[in-house]
Amino acid sequence: MALGIATFTVITSLLAAYTIVYFKVKLATTYFWLIFLTILVPLEVRILPSHQIVSELNLINTYAGLILPLLASAIATLFFRQFYKTIPEELLEAAKLDGVNSLKFLIDFIIPLSKTMIIAIFIFMFVYGYNQYLWPIIATTNENYWTVIMGMKIIFMRSLVTSFSYIILSIIPPILVIILLQRWFVKGLIHTEK
Predict the structure, then answer these.
(1) Rounded to an integer, what distance in angstroms lies between the CA atom of residue 121 and that of residue 8?
(2) How many angstroms separate the CA atoms of 26 and 5, rounded?
(3) Environment class of residue 87 by beta-carbon count within 10 Å: exposed (0-12), middle (13-18) or buried (19+)?
(4) Around Cβ 153, how many Cβ atoms within 10 Å?
(5) SS3 letters for 46-88?
């Protein structure tokens, strides 16, 4: 679930910010601020409508039902948008002169330039998805789809010794993700300084 949320959030936020910055869409700034205003609507407020939609689509007790309502992030879109605004316009103009279309510009220029941002957002969203409790408890009835946090509550009620070891084991995946991706993040920072 955490991997799905992190991956799809990076993709949707990257594409949303790319569209807002590089396509000359009417009211692009207004669309951005509408996306940004969704920060004011927490998950708790949209629980019932989200649950109704997920159940109407028969996505209860599926990973898609756990991931889809959480994959859009206004903060990630804001970070990508602000980063893309720092990329010089001359790069886009030079690419257009070379006959590069929008998709090729995204793949060949924007994505390589924003590797550090992609990794930073991925780490943040992985930890966010990994720590989910409220949405999974509402969207699942099958134990196979329970999150680690839900398991902590059950194990903590049984035994303090077991729960302590479970807690230690449960922090290993986020720590591994941070340690593995931190190297790429730092490498990207070093290369962008040159």
Answers:
(1) 11
(2) 30
(3) middle
(4) 12
(5) CHHHHHHHHHHCCCCCCHHHHHHHHCCCHHHHHHHHHHHHCCC
Query: Looking up tokens 């049984």, which residue turns up?
Result: 158
Query: Token match 């993700």: residue?
Result: 177
Topology of domain 2-193 in CATH is: MetI-like fold (1.10.3720)
Kindly list the distances between the CA atom of residue 105 and the CA atoms of 20, 94, 95, 194, in Å, as whole numbers in the listed order.
15, 10, 7, 22
Amino acid, single-letter form, for residue 36: F
pTM exceeds cut of 0.90: no
By the 8 A CB rule, do 22 and 109 touch? no
Maximum Cα–Cα distance for the chain, whole Å? Answer: 67
Q: What is the pLDDT of residues 75-115, one digit of tens each?
A: 999 999 989 998 888 888 888 888 889 899 999 999 998 98
Q: Measure the CA–CA gap between 77 and 192, rounded to whole angstroms.
A: 21
Query: Considering just the CA atoms, what is the radius of gyration of the chain in Å?
Result: 20
Is residue 84 within 8 Å of residue 22, measured between CB atoms? yes
- Comparing CA positions, the residue from 136, 143, 137, 164 lying closest to residue 152 is 164
SS3 44: coil
Q: Which of 63, 59, 46, 27 is nearest to 147 (CA)?
A: 63
The DSSP element (H or E) to which 138 belongs, if any, is: helix 134-139
